[in-house]
Design goal:
This protein has 155 residues and is α+β, with helices and mostly antiparallel strands. It has a single domain, classed as 2-Layer Sandwich (Alpha-D-Glucose-1,6-Bisphosphate, Chain A, domain 4). It is 28% helix and 45% strand. Strands 1-7-6-5-4-3-2 form a seven-stranded antiparallel beta sheet, with helices on one face.
Length: 155
């Protein structure tokens, strides 16, 4: 029996949609703000359906590789990926919408939980840390984009 893990974070960003979109979909730049993760485009341009992205979390040799393919590309509001690796599998969505004078960034993952009962137990143990790390990573991105916007910089 396969169970799913839903991970979803919403983050307000005091910057316009195009700036937030450019930052969150700059895959290699994600390495600067996603905790402990290095991200790279390995196939395609990273800005179209069919492009492949790899994210390695941890310090080699201890960590895991998250492989994904872009399945929808709707700039500047939505990108969908399908995680298709050995450990992480399932859809993910990043959305950027107008919110007042700024934006709201929504990042959600709906992933298969590996390792059966052991995985379910393990997820209960680590999920508060994973969720906190995810939220912290998006807050770091938001602060970076806001500082760039305030300085008049854009991607």
């Amino acid at each position: 029996m396969s169970s799913r893990v839903r991970l979803s974070v919403e983050m307000p960003v005091a910057a316009p949609v195009p700036q937030v979109w450019a930052a969150v979909t700059d895959w290699p730049r994600q390495s600067q703000w996603i905790l402990g993760t290095t991200v790279e485009v390995v196939e395609g341009d990273g800005r179209s359906v069919g492009s492949r992205v790899h994210a390695y979390t941890g310090r080699r040799p201890i960590g895991f590789l998250d492989t994904m393919v872009i399945t929808a590309w709707e700039p500047p509001h939505r990108v969908e990926v399908m995680h298709d690796g050995k450990l992480i599998r399932g859809p993910g969505v990043i959305e950027v919408q107008q919110a007042g004078n700024g934006s709201v960034l929504r990042w959600s993952e709906d992933l298969e939980q590996p390792f059966g009962a052991v995985g379910r137990f393990g997820w209960r143990a680590v999920s508060p840390l994973v969720r906190a790390g995810f939220r912290r990573s998006l807050a770091t991105l938001a602060r970076s984009v806001e500082r760039q916007w305030q300085r008049g910089e854009s991607d």
